[in-house]
Specification:
The protein is of the alpha+beta class and about 200 residues long. The chain folds into 2 domains: about 140 residues, no CATH class; about 40 residues. About 35% of the residues lie in helices and about 30% in strands. Helix 5 packs antiparallel against helix 6. It is rod-shaped.
């Protein structure tokens, strides 16, 4: 290996190290998001305009945009619903690791180039598990529970015909009983007794 090739090789290694940092190396600029739609195994899950699964989907998401995480859920015969998550949290340990381990000293002056790299890549952010519907599996995997409500009122409850017929039948009997009372066929006492019988059926 010639001297020039050796210097180029060393320069490439230094460039690679200097354009990375603790948070970017450990955890990366993305994390894995798993979206689950409870009670709707056939619901389509869309992320950035692409359908990625039915009922459940796993995919990469950007750490710096963890506070803009959004999925659209749809199902045949039901309304489409976009579910948004708005919270993110600072990865403090990653920031400290970058500050300590990836700060260079040039002419006696500390240069925290690792912090600058993480700031640009957004690697020191993560979803906030205090937000409703967000859970952590490990530092790089998070679960989102999408409570889809697009089908809540899609089916109207069916009326019980038997109950309807019973109500109509009672009403007819009571009308007939009242007619008998008005015509003097039965007494007030008999009317009350018979009415109570009908209502108790």
């Amino acid at each position: 290996m010639t001297k020039n090739n050796l210097l180029n090789f060393i320069g490439l290694i230094l460039l690679t190290v200097m354009t990375s940092s603790c948070a970017t190396i450990v955890g990366g600029t993305n994390y894995y998001a798993k979206v689950q739609v409870p009670n709707h195994p056939d619901a389509k899950i869309e992320y950035k305009g692409k359908v990625l699964g039915l009922g459940e989907a796993s995919f990469k998401a950007e750490r710096k945009k963890a506070n803009e995480f959004s999925v659209t859920i749809s199902k045949e015969g039901c309304e489409r619903e976009t579910i948004n998550f708005h919270e993110r949290k600072f990865r403090g340990w990653a920031f400290v690791g970058t500050l300590v381990g990836f700060t260079g000293i040039v002419s006696g002056v500390p240069l925290p180039w690792g912090v600058a790299v993480d700031g640009m890549t957004g690697a020191w952010w993560k979803p906030d598990i205090n937000e409703k519907g967000v859970m952590k599996q490990d530092y790089n995997h998070y679960v989102y529970i999408a409570n889809y409500k697009g089908c809540v009122n899609s089916e109207k409850p069916k009326r019980d015909k038997k109950v309807d017929n019973t109500i109509v039948s009672k009403a007819e009997k009571l009308r007939e009983l009242k007619r008998l009372l008005d015509d003097g066929v039965i007494t007030e006492k008999e009317f009350i007794i018979e009415k109570n019988k009908i209502l108790s059926q």
